[in-house]
Fold:
Amino acid sequence: MTFHKKLSPFYNLAFFYFAISFLLRIVLFFHPITQSSFTILQSVKIFSLGLVSDFFVFVVASVFLWLYLIFISNSKYNKPSGYIILGFFISLFLYVASGKSIFDEYGGALPEIVLIFIGIKTLLFTLLLFLPKWRDKIRFWLFAFVIFLYVLLILQNGLSEYFFWNEFGVKYNFIAVNYLIYTNEVIGNIMQSYPVIPIFSALFLVTGVVTYFILKNSRNYIDNIPTVSEKVKITLIYLSLFALSLIAIPTLAKTEKSKNVFVNELQANGLYKFYLAFQNNKLDYFKFYKTLPNDKAFAILKQQFATISGENTTRKITGDSLENHKNVVLITIESYSADFMKAYGNEQNITPFLDSLAQKSLQFTNLYAAGNRTVRGLEAVTLCLPPTAGESVVKREDNKNKFSTGFIFKQKGYNLKFMYGGDAFFDNMQDFYSGNGYQIVDKSSFSPEEITFSNVWGVCDEDMYNKAIKIMNDEAQQNKPFFNHIMTVSNHRPFTYPNNKIDIPGDIKSRDGGVKYTDYSLKKFFEMASKQPWFKNTVFVIVADHCASSAGKTQLPLGKYRIPAFIFAPGEKPSKCNKLMSQIDLMPTLFGLLHFDYQSKFFGQDVLKSDYKPRAFIATYQDLGLIRDNVLTILSPKQIVKQYELKLSPKPGIATEYQIYYDEIPLQTERTDLVNETISFYQTASDMLKKKKYQK
Structure:
């Protein structure tokens, strides 16, 4: 048998992938949404370079096929190697099943998924080991399943690219990535929008037919398993092409620079575009959302900031007395919903310390998180900027030298630190904060004796606070004020923490336990801090990064964005601010309390000023909301705008300012003024980031 037939699984699947890609380009080329005519040269470019790009993408995507095929052999079932391998699989299965594996540190469904995968591998290996007479048949059906899966994914991707183009007129972008995050909503939308049963019935039927023909022309690989030397040749060929593909794919993508956007999109490979969406984290506001002329958008913004001029937000902020350069400690608490606290109706007594601290602080009772991820909360308190479409600025490539709260503190002579009990490389925090002038203190800064407990996310909050106290004691000796931003980790799945600290054991993985331990750790921190000489000259700002959950019956459920926030200054009288406000307003309000004079670019405002107009921003990756005048206005891709009247759904026994649940009733008559205002905020913020006008 000639050697090239040993490559038949690869080239048969490749030909099928090329055929589907070519057919897809033809369909999209003549699709009604493709409102463009193409020259002969452009058409040649679309199909020729598109095909070359498809080839290299297929090479990378077939890495799992190569791994599967290269390990097919009979020799591994010989004695004693077969029994040794089986023993390894059984040991691995028992390790994961024990509930004490590294996968359990993360929690969720991951341990079960890994256990099922290893269980299937163990079962199949056992059958192939002890049933040699059935080995060929079992191997054939496994081979058929792998081919079936590849064919199914190729067809599924082709359909997905078509429907995505049908909706947005482009290949995959960040919205497609977002679809993987909001699975329930997306599946619900698909079920309601398309004839799912006929489509998937046809999909599986075609997959079965195609698999049959590919199997017929590829089964020689398992009928005559390649020798070791042939596998070495296959591996050398594959790895050479794989290495070349890693260079060729981005190089070909750089040729997508036609002035005709449809040429670029049709030439592009959808799978690589999907990968880029993960990397770039951006969603072009001006391409997908409703817009106004830029000068009009900034003119509307001027109604919020009377002293700005031109297309920027630069304005002078003047304090009403002598500046007060107190130390500032900002604590952002992981996943801390307002309704965990007693004042908001919780009866489980899981936040006793924060409940008491709130009564001694300036409370912000009507504050909304900007988003539903940690990076959105960090962006909000650091950049004081509305949550623009796509991923948070924290995770974008262009995330450095921004106009930030840290920049203002640095201008005032403060030392800056970002403290995180985990690995600051996670979620790009290291890159973002170091790129904006902060010194990083994370798990790598801890000595072994400073760590009493850790899980997959990092050291427990107590360890982080102990470290913070040591650092602040050293800083207090430097005759400079300090600004330290601490991000907690303990209130996060798997909700493990040291035992014998609270009345909920740390190893039962309870969210209530995570909340209560976080509260307990804060109490310990304040007990330690209150004994330090710098305590009375320090302001403590405490706010959640986001709620524990963002899922709800509506696009942007208000109750899932309400978070607690306090400013505690020892010796100051407690008070409440019940004004509607956003997470982006917290630090500008603090600067007002410290009477800072500074040039501001912040969209966030001092809510204690008489000219503040109550409003709040809430968003997902693609739905951008503004709350104003008991109306929620939402901007979505495809220039969609929705508005809802907010009707309070009160819970008995809770004070008015702590009521958080609203019915969102579709507005019968559009409030054009609020639509334009919402567009103005998000469009101008997007414009300033895009044109690099939000730099320090």
In short: The two ends are 68 Å apart (CA to CA). The mean pLDDT is 92.
